Automatic annotation (TrEMBL):
Family in the record: Belongs to the CvfB family.
Pfam families: CvfB_1st, CvfB_2nd, S1_2, WHD_CvfB
InterPro entries: CvfB_fam, CvfB_S1_2nd, CvfB_S1_3rd, CvfB_S1_st, CvfB_WH, NA-bd_OB-fold, S1_domain, WH-like_DNA-bd_sf
Protein name: S1 RNA-binding domain-containing protein
Domain S1 motif residue range list: 154-215
Lineage of producing organism: Bacteria, Bacillati, Bacillota, Bacilli, Bacillales
Superkingdom: Bacteria
PANTHER family to which the protein is assigned, alphabetical: CONSERVED VIRULENCE FACTOR B
Length: 288
């Protein structure tokens, strides 16, 4: 069995030159150093610190580029390609990008990261010593995180999703705080690797992590709903057959909001003097 493993940093001596590069050795096994990886000051007589990976032909090869992300070392890597039949490829600084297998990604493709997004990950090898990307675990993400204080309550934070669960979404903020978005606190499920912005609804005493909501604050929701209602009113020439007495199911079908939200938004428009109600209808005030 090979003693040299892809994804690791080793010291190797020079063995011999070949037309396409050099072979380095640990005394028992030779590893190819491609000519594209050979620095100008390379000396075959010296020992060299190199990183091991598989080249495009699957051969164990060496590079003088030592990536931050390797076996036992985690870091942020950009997603550079998505292939639904294989998984996603990440760039860790090598000439060859590394695959994170679809077996390690969410079952739903819509929850896979998109090109240009980032994952906190490491490297691993399978039984054939093939190199793959490996997503972070809770222990590793906690090593780069910090406790949040109570002053974070109700503040907006932006973070990157590092894990998707049935009950919700886990992320780490730009400041390094760990956060959790319960499924009831979002209108859609964020992707792995996606950056999202939400508000802090709680700071946990035990570990200083955050509870986060992606839903708008009450006044923001009212403003948005009021704008939607008023735009619909204008599109109908200034009058619509909806008001305080309308049935909840009719409001839901037309505006995709609850009757309570509708009444709050309508009340805001009335208070601002933009609309009036008459005989079950709502009119722009200048047309009432």
């Amino acid at each position: 069995m090979s003693r040299l493993e892809a994804g690791t940093v080793v010291r190797l001596g020079g063995a011999r030159e070949v037309p396409f590069g050099y072979f380095l050795t640990d005394g028992e096994e030779d590893v190819l150093l491609h000519h594209t990886e050979v620095p100008e000051d390379f000396n075959l007589e010296q020992e060299h610190t190199v990183f091991l990976y598989q080249d495009h032909q699957g051969r164990l090869s060496a590079t003088f580029t030592i990536p931050e992300i390797r076996k036992g070392h985690f870091g942020w890597a950009e997603v550079v390609e998505v292939k639904k039949d294989l998984g996603v490829f990440i760039h860790i600084g090598l000439q060859k990008d590394i695959l994170i297998s679809k077996d390690d990604l969410p079952e739903l493709h819509r929850l896979w990261p998109e090109k240009g997004e980032y994952l906190f990950c490491s490297l691993k090898t399978d039984k054939k010593n093939r190199l793959f990307g490996s997503l972070t675990n809770e222990n590793e993400i906690q090593k780069i995180s910090k406790r949040a204080s109570k002053t974070m309550f109700n503040q907006n934070v932006t973070g990157t999703v590092y894990r998707v669960l049935l009950e919700g979404t886990k992320l780490i903020t730009e400041e390094g705080y760990l956060g959790f978005i319960h499924r009831s606190e979002r209108t859609r499920e964020p992707r792995l690797g996606e950056k999202v912005t939400g508000r802090v609804t709680g700071v946990k005493e035990d570990d200083g992590s955050l509870n986060i909501s992606l839903l708008p604050r009450a006044h923001e929701a009212i403003d948005k709903d009021a704008e939607l209602i008023f735009n619909y009113l204008v599109s109908r020439g200034g009058s619509m057959p909806y008001g305080d007495k309308s049935m909840p199911e009719d409001i839901k079908a037309r505006f995709q909001m609850s009757k309570g939200a509708f009444k709050r938004a309508l009340g805001k428009l009335m208070k601002e003097g933009k609309v009036i109600q008459k005989d079950g209808w709502t009119h722009r005030k200048d047309q009432g």
